[in-house]
Each structure stands twice: as C-alpha cells, then as structure tokens.
C-alpha cells in the first residue's frame, strides 16, 4: 500500500477526480501570473527570508544569504539530544543575523511523551508528571509548561514551541551596489510564531513527537492575530501537502491561517511536496480549498472504486460552480495585476521548505528564499 506521504501517480489523480486533476495546473498558472502576493512597504527595505526544514541530521552545503533563517522542524532522525545539538551547532555557524527553529515529529527530545530514555531527567512511569500528559494535549504543551530545562545550547537561535518572538531588522546603511547611504528606509519588525504539532495521519510510534489525532483540533485560536510569519511542521490542508485529493495537511491549521493571514507560512513534513505557493485569501482560493476538501475522502478508495469519481464529477453541480469560481476569480486577479497595473495587497506565501528529497535520505530540495 502506498504511503500517504508519497505522491501518487497522475492516473490516480485523474481517476479519483478528473475535474480537479485538470483544474490544478490551470489554478497554479493563474496564481503565478498574478505576481507577488505582497510587496514590501514602500518606505522600508525588503527582508530576505531563507526557509529550510526536514534536514534530518544532514547539512545543506550552501545555504543562501538572508536576513532571517527559518528551520521548520525535523532537525534529527532519532530525536536525541546529541543529534539535535549537532544540527543546532551547524545552524549556529551560519551567518544569518536572525535564526528561528521549531521542532518536528522526529525531534522527540522536545516532547515529554517521546523523549528517549537516556535523555529523560526522570523515568516515564505511571507516577511521573509526564504520564499525565495525554495524546490529545501533549502536542499543545510547551517545555516551560512541563517545567523542563532544555539541555540544548541554542546560542543566538530562537527556538519556538507554542511561542512567538518579535525580531527587528535595521535598514542597511548603504545600497548593496554602491556606497551611497540609503535615505528614507526605516527599521522593520516581524512577529514570528512557531508550533510543532502534526496530525497522526498514520499510526506513528511513541518515538514521534507532537502528534495529535487527525480529528482533534489542536489549532483554533492558538496563533496570535499579530503574527507576520507562521512556522509549523505540518502543512495546512490543500497547500503543498500532496493536494488535490491526497491531501494530508491539517484543515484546522488552514482555518487558523485564514483567521490570521500571515505574510509567510513556513512548514515542511511532506518531503514530496516541497516548494512555494502564493496565496491571496480570496474567492478563488476558497473555492479551490472546498474542491480539495470535498474530494479528500476519495483518497481512501481503491483505483477501481475511484472510477466512480468520474461520474460524481459529472453530476456534482457544486464542484463545477467552484471550478468556475477558481477560473473566474483567478483570471480577474491576473487582469487586475498584469493589465490594469493594480497592486496585490493582503496576500502572502506558503512554503514547504522540506530539504529532504522524497525518502532518499539526501538533501536535494533547495532552500526557499522569500522576500518580504
């Protein structure tokens, strides 16, 4: 049986839902044609954000320069203090002025339920404080809540676990191409919130950290409204999570992203879906997400049973209406930005920054660089 974390073949997508399989490339083309979803403020300098994730003890040889480096989890494989500290030491050696890291499901030291025996300060037993942490609540408990002192030497790195940090980026004193002082540029601040929890879409073992039951809502009203950059390990549903149809992202995280609408949402976890995607928080996006959600149940069907997807697509008016919304509102967005010269505002980026290439054990997906 194919793992839900692996991309399915094109025939599988077409058989399950010909409508969304054919609409997907057009939707992606319209997104790209609309241009940058959010431009930097006119009186401030751009901030270059470098995004990586899922390095699994390995080191990318040439991380691009930038003002902010974000690692969205899975620093390690076995989650031991030794492996995590080695990855942190590598990140500390990089020259980026600001660095932010969250944990992933392989970083088990940061979740009391999943910590290796040799890394525990007290044994896991019925009488321990850790045993009282249930599977549905441990994912939303921080190290501070558990009164556990971290054994990781973070140096200048900001580690976020259901917490946030506000970083200030001073303006450059000169233009990169000259020695002329810049005039009118001001310092900028960005609020970054990080959370590591992931839905257990497969039967993860106890060594996997921060898991919660797929139907459990671990997200609603957890992200501060003022968040500019959201860093999670799991993707939201319908975005860079093997969508359409075979989506394994979290629908509650998607709803939380709609509420906050960050400039940038960085995640990883799904190696097969690495990349970036502009989001505009409009009717085209809502319609696309409805199409993906309505067909998510078909991922459980066999190929033979999925043949009924073809008939269901033909006789399902709501699907055709949403497909029309994706095309019409997406086209209007292209006309607004590329023909009328209008400026996109209020949009943002979603980035799956997984560096691990599929299940190869090698880092081949390059770091993603976003300019805010």
Automatic annotation (TrEMBL):
UniProt-recorded Gene Ontology molecular function terms? hydrolase activity
The Calcineurin-like phosphoesterase domain is annotated at: 48-272
Q: Which protein are we looking at?
A: Calcineurin-like phosphoesterase domain-containing protein
Please give the Pfam families that the UniProt record associates with this protein.
Metallophos (PF00149)
- Upper lineage: Eukaryota, Fungi, Dikarya, Ascomycota, Pezizomycotina
Fetch the InterPro entries from UniProt.
Calcineurin-like_PHP, Metallo-depent_PP-like, UPF0046_metallophosphoest
UniProt source species: Penicillium capsulatum
